[in-house]
Structure formats: C-alpha cells, structure tokens
Amino acid sequence: MKLGILSRAPNVYSTQRLKTAALDRGHEVRVLNTLRFAIDLADDEPALQYRGKTLSEYDAVLPRIGASITFFGLAVVRQFEQMDVYTPNTAAGIANSRDKLRSIQILSRHDIGIPATTFVRDRQDVLAAIDRVGGAPVVIKLLEGTQGIGVILAPDTKVAEAIIETLQSARQNVLIQRFIAESKGRDVRALVVGDRVVAAMRRKAQGDEFRSNVHRGGTTEAVTLDPEFERVAVQAAQIMGLRVAGVDMLEADDGPLVMEVNSSPGLEGIETATGLDIAGSIVDYIADQVDFPELDVRQRLTVSTGYGVAELLMREGADMIGKTIADSGLRDQDITVLTLTRGTKVIPNPRNDRVLEPDDRLLCFGKLDSMRHLVPEKSRRRLRRKIKPLPAEPIHDVEAQSVGPGDS
Ligand SMILES: Nc1ncnc2c1ncn2[C@@H]1O[C@H](COP(=O)(O)OP(=O)(O)O)[C@@H](O)[C@H]1O
Ligand SMILES: [Mg+2]
C-alpha cells in the first residue's frame, strides 16, 4: 500500500518508527507535513494539493495531529475521508478525543467506568458541583490540556473555588472531577490497535506528584492487563471512533476508570517499556483494513425513504424473548438485525436460530414505522416529540418555575 503519515515532526521517534515499520514491510510511505496541504473544494471530486501540487493517490493515511493544529489538521483528515482514503482515526474520532468533556460525555452512556465529573458555568453552582463529585481534594482540568499541563489537584474547597474562578475569568473551561486517591499517582496506558490491546504500561508519578504523565517525570513499566481493563480500553477507543488510540485508565477500587483517549499516542515510552513492535502492529492493521474506508452507515442507509437504523431493546416480558430471531417476526416486519449486544458482548450478524434474551439490544435496519413500537420508551418519547409537539403540560418542577433574570 501507499501510506501517508500526517505529521509535522518527521524526525521524532514515533514518526521514524512508523515510517521504518512500513518500509520494512515493503510498503511505500511518505511523511506529509499536515500544514502544507491545501483543500480544494471547487471540483466535483474532492481533492488535495500538497506543497502547491495535486497530491498523488494514497491508499491510507495515519494522522498524527498535534493539539496546536487541531482545526486545520482535522480539515485535512476529513478531506482524505471524502476522497475514500483509509484512515484508522477519523476526523470525528480525533475531535472527540481532543476535548476531555466531549470524550467522557460520549463514554458515559456506555458500560465504561469514568471518574465522577461535572461541568458548570455559573459561580453559584461550583460549591454544589464539588460536593457532588465527592468533595475536596478534587481534580480540576482544562478541557484541552495535554501532558499533564492543565490538571490540578485542589486540596480543599476554598482553593478549588479560587482556581476555578481564576481559570474561568481567563476564559478557560474547566472540568471538576473526583480525585481517585486509591490510584496513588499511578495510571495505566493501553495501546489499542483495531479491536485489541497491543501493549500496556503502568505509569507512576514521581515523588509527591499525582500526575503520572511521562512528561511530568512519571516512570513506566510493562503490565499485563486484566481482561476487564482490556475490554474497557478497546470499547472506549471504538466508541470514540479511533482504531489507534492510547487509553488512559485509573485503577480504582472497583475497576478501571477511563480518563482520556489519545488519538496520537506517543510510541517511545510504551515501546521502550514493553519491548514490543507497536509501530509494526499499527502498520499491519492499516494494511489489513485499507480496503474499508470509513463510511457513515446512517447517512448511506437512510437514503431510502422511511427506512433507517434503530436500537431495539428486549424489555423483560417482551413477546420476542425466548424466541429465535427467525421466529421473532422481525423479518416479516421488514426489519433486519445487524448486531446483537448482550451485556458487554457484541454479536455481529446474529444467526437466525439465536434465541433472544431479556435486555438484549438489537441494532436494526428497517422501516421506521415498524420499529417505532420496539424502540425503548425514552427514545420513543423523544421521537414522538420531534414529529408532533406534545400538548402543553402543567409545570410541576421547581426548576422550571423559578426561571429568574439572566437565565434566558
Ligand atoms: N481524577 C483523577 N484522580 C486521580 N488522578 C488523576 C485524575 N485525573 C488525572 N489524574 C492524573 O493526572 C494525569 C493527567 O491527567 P489526564 O486527564 O490524562 O490529562 P493529560 O491530557 O494532561 O494527560 C493522569 O495520567 C493521572 O495520573
Ligand atoms: Mg493523559
């Protein structure tokens, strides 16, 4: 394949290793400076200029987009996607991971542990917010910090309030997060490639520092992860839309808590700690997937009027429970089951003779009208509201009644 590594740093360890790994495997590879692209949108076909010339054809790109050039870098990656060039990390995936709030918002609805976190804007809401995540000491984070910069441990409520106020007055958005004391300056970095963890290390903070980032002097050692840590790391990366990712987890008393998912994980620390050829795994994965560029399933599937995708839930007591998919009557209603999620297990293309169990979730494609009565209560209510506004209801909750000045 012909691979482009999108990076502004051709000589750093990670870029060098990826390039060498590709060459060793007989691929054609070039490091392309992300900032030297021009995105041309006038033509019928999306195209890219590189250093003033039309870019030749590439099979795949591997984005290594630094935080300081996120906006332009994502535009370049998105353009490659429009050109059907394979990328393990999509622009949307990278954007998700760049913002600590956005990423844990996305993870929070899934079966992935995250440290209790809150996001507030008004000064009057800060104290209660700190309380809700367990009180001081409490962690305060800038939404877009990296390498430990912008992560602060506030020892008491007064200091926490002062820090938050200071940062907000400097127009910085901050998260308030529970301090996971039992992790004691340690965390785990799992390197996910595709649907597996290819390497993992534990990082330990130096001295009385609580941040274990290598850039803050943290030390590293190879670890073998518990299956639960592996599952969480792989699923977190998948949910974010990243096929190459560094997933950072705290080791809490009740299991892994994901702090963040990095879309351009550095390779030096983890290859040194584990002695593994991670660059090779990444290149092999890209070569394996290169024929399957990202496509937006929902966008493509919903072009036929009245059809779409929906997730159906087998509620306790539902008629279909105990029946096979073949006997469930779904097919007769023009509904096809794409995947079945049972607990933390996902079964793609489930067979017709598979028996449905309570709490199974079926990702289906079919006539929206036929699926309407099968979607879970909550999303159904939302759907109805979208179609026709519900009649006005008397106001019950205090919050809605006490809309004061400044709330609009
Ligand atoms: N809620 C927390 N409880 C305990 N330690 C934390 C918490 N959040 C972060 N840390 C420590 O701080 C480090 C940096 O935090 P992280 O959210 O990963 O930011 P960055 O993007 O700067 O690496 C983590 O690796 C971990 O050691
Ligand atoms: Mg981190």
Strand order of the largest sheet: 13-12-11-14-15
Helix coverage percent? 25-40%
- Helix and strand composition category: alpha+beta
Arithmetic mean pLDDT = 90
**Percentage of β-strand residues:** 25-35%
CATH topology (fold) name of the largest domain: D-amino Acid Aminotransferase, Chain A, domain 1
Can you put this structure into words, describing what you see?
This protein has helices at residues 13-24, 70-82, 91-98, 100-108, 126-132, 157-169, 227-240, 268-274, 278-289, 297-301, 368-371, 377-387, 398-401, and strands at residues 2-6, 28-32, 37-40, 47-50, 53-54, 60-63, 117-118, 138-142, 151-154, 174-178, 186-193, 196-204, 219-222, 244-252, 255-262, 307-313, 335-342, 345-348, 361-367. The protein is an alpha+beta fold and 408 residues long. The protein folds into 4 domains: 2-97, 3-Layer(aba) Sandwich (Rossmann fold); 116-179, ATP-grasp fold, A domain (Dna Ligase, domain 1), CATH 3.30.1490.20; 182-289, ATP-grasp fold, B domain (D-amino Acid Aminotransferase, Chain A, domain 1); 297-387, Alpha-Beta Plaits. The strands form 5 sheets. The protein has a 5-stranded antiparallel beta sheet with strand order 13-12-11-14-15, sandwiched between helices. The protein has a 4-stranded antiparallel beta sheet with strand order 7-10-8-9, with helices on one face. Strands 16-19-17-18 form a 4-stranded antiparallel beta sheet. Strand 3 and strand 4 (47-50) form a beta hairpin. Helix 2 (70-82) runs antiparallel to helix 3 (91-98). The longest helix has 14 residues, at 227-240. The protein starts with a strand and ends in a 7-residue tail after the last helix. Mean pLDDT is 90; it is low at 385-408. The structure holds adenosine-5'-diphosphate and magnesium ion. Adenosine-5'-diphosphate binds at residues 115, 139, 141, 145-149, 151, 177-180, 183, 187, 210-213, 248, 250, 259-260.
